[in-house]
Task: structure prediction
Amino acid sequence: MSPLPVVHAHPFSSYCWKVLIALYENGTPFEFKPVEGEADWAELERLWPMKLMPVLVDGDRTVAEASIIIEYLAMVHSGPVELIPSDPDAALHARFLDRVFDNYVMTPMNRIVGNQLRPEADRDPFGVTEARAKLDRAYRWIEDTIPADGWAMGEEFTLADCAAAPALFYADWAHPIPEDRPNARAYRARLLARPSVARAVDEARPYRKYFPLGAPDRD
Ligand SMILES: N[C@@H](CCC(=O)N[C@@H](CS)C(=O)NCC(=O)O)C(=O)O
Result:
């Protein structure tokens, strides 16, 4: 058994970034277990029958779901960056924003990307149009809601930003944030400049050729 928490993940996976960013923020030591080959996928399925990454194994504890892993890290391996605010009301808001980025940015982005991975005959243009409209709605909400400086909650970097970074990174590739949403675009740019996020972006760079819509020549 590893003395360190083990993270089963892939460097190109958006939900894995969420957890990696949380780990990098606090300099939490961990072992990275890439999910690549058949045996890795079989192990992932054994750990979490939904067969989705990331999964964290810490001693005899197995934790799945990116947001819950970050909650677990805040509880058991906390560091100087309070990803779950200690004030309950602020924590509720961070969790709410985390849901917004997962449900209304990551999910439609994944629908567009996932559609492209299907055989041509199984594609769903209606679903893609719907997902694009959802992203436009989310971009408008982010434009009007996210502070003009700092992070989703203001001064402190939290769970909400761990969720926002991969969601906005890939969503902007799949369905660019329009120029008339300067606040949302600036928030994405601030996220990408944060060292924990920049590190996740850099580690994923070798895999960009696998982005099914074609990775843009930027970021
Ligand atoms: N709700 C899950 C979603 C995890 C998820 O969708 N992971 C993707 C990678 S970003 C995955 O494992 N996909 C593998 C598959 O669908 O077969 C979480 O928050 O951790």
